[in-house]
Amino acid sequence: MSEDVNTQHAEAMRALKAERDALMETKTLEKGLLLVHTGDGKGKSSAGFGMVARSLGWGMQVGVVQFIKGKWKTGERLFFSRFPDQVRYRVMGEGFTWDTQDRERDIAAARAAWEESKAMIADPTLDFVLLDEINIALRYDYLDIDEVVEVLKARPNDKHVCLTGRNAKPQLLEIADLVTEMTLVKHPFEQGFKAQRGVEF
Amino acid sequence: MSEDVNTQHAEAMRALKAERDALMETKTLEKGLLLVHTGDGKGKSSAGFGMVARSLGWGMQVGVVQFIKGKWKTGERLFFSRFPDQVRYRVMGEGFTWDTQDRERDIAAARAAWEESKAMIADPTLDFVLLDEINIALRYDYLDIDEVVEVLKARPNDKHVCLTGRNAKPQLLEIADLVTEMTLVKHPFEQGFKAQRGVEF
To answer: What transmembrane ranges does the database entry give (chains A, B) (predicted)?
Structure first.
């Protein structure tokens, strides 16, 4: 590799770093963020659980409510239940709605999960709260979106809350600080693969 | 709520479940998946670390190579380093390229990380390998994409490998089983917020 390429590279990187440093100086605010992971691609819940892991690494206290997974045995529950001193983990759903086939029961389960969520959102000892698949419950109008928005807006100033699930309501996107849409580009189901441990659950 | 609504709901859900069960019967294949998280949105690495947590929950053995984070203290490293019996964790980068400003050193670091990755991909005792931000090293051509493709294609049949980072090479998308594009809808940087513990690192 010629010396020129390396010199040019160093110059370009110095310019990039100067630009980035200047940008970073404008980023001075810190507060609890409201994050939404939506879209029809994979990774919405996984990214939420990755944030749980990061938070635990920093010694934070975390709350998790799973709205849909029900009595399923999942890798995330098996793992994070190992840390009861740092993680308050609640699985409130009774399974997917097409499994229960009982609307009244689904509504009761969703509302019980929401009661638990409200307590976690208000609890000043929790730094981060993950409401996994709450968007599904909102989509079916099992929860009142106006109440959810109101509770989220009234959360303690330094609390991060992450909401996952496809078809996020526009009212949520409106108040969110960070919204990521996970877009499906290629999915193994298309090729006949089963959902697999570690990857899908 | 009238009885009718609930009866209709139960019928609709029975139909949905029948449809889903029929679909699931066609999904019979199991093999190690090649997953790519790309795009300019958040959650690419987080979703990879969520899969690490899930895998650990199932008692799997996991390998992680971080190509870019360098000597940064991150929540993910602080956390997953707690489980040396289940996680082989290597941070090989020396920081972002605009920090080092030294192309030769970046290339050497990327190649050392790739050597470690190759060993993990070939190691039959590891069930899941996360190559975090490898796409950045590939984008700068610090690694040879043809060699990376060849090594990934030759991996043990039951091994899951996840590659993250924006600007994934088309050759990778071509051989991947699952590709998710994380799309930025709204980012707190736009509003002046700093990168924060637990959320960004």
So the answer is: none
Instruction: List beta partners, residue B37.
Output: B164, B180
Which of B9, B57, B181 is opposite residue A183, by nearest beta carbon?
B181
Any B CB within 8 A of A186 CB: yes
What confidence tens digit (pLDDT) does each residue in A66-94 have? 998 777 889 999 999 999 999 999 998 77
- Contacts of residue A28, defined as CB under 8 A and 6 or more positions apart, other chains included, come to B192, B194
Is residue A118 scored above 90 in pLDDT? yes
Interface A-B: count of C-beta contacts within 8 A: 276
When pLDDT is cut at 50, 70 and 90, the band that residue A27 belongs to is: low
Both ends of chain A: CA-CA distance in Å? 46
Give the residue on A whose Cα is nearest the Cα of B62.
A198
Domain boundaries, chain B: 1-30, 31-191
Kindly determine whether residue B178 and residue A186, on different chains, have CB atoms separated by under 8 Å.
yes
Taking only residues 145 to 164 of chain A, the set having a beta carbon closer than 8 angstroms to any beta carbon of chain B reads: 160
User: Tens of pLDDT along A101-112?
Assistant: 788 888 999 999
List the one residue out of B133, B178, B167, B129 whose CA is nearest residue B151: B129
Q: Which residue has the tokens 């929540």?
A: B75
Q: Which CATH number applies to A32-191? A: 3.40.50.300
ipTM score here? 0.86
- For B31-191, CATH number? 3.40.50.300
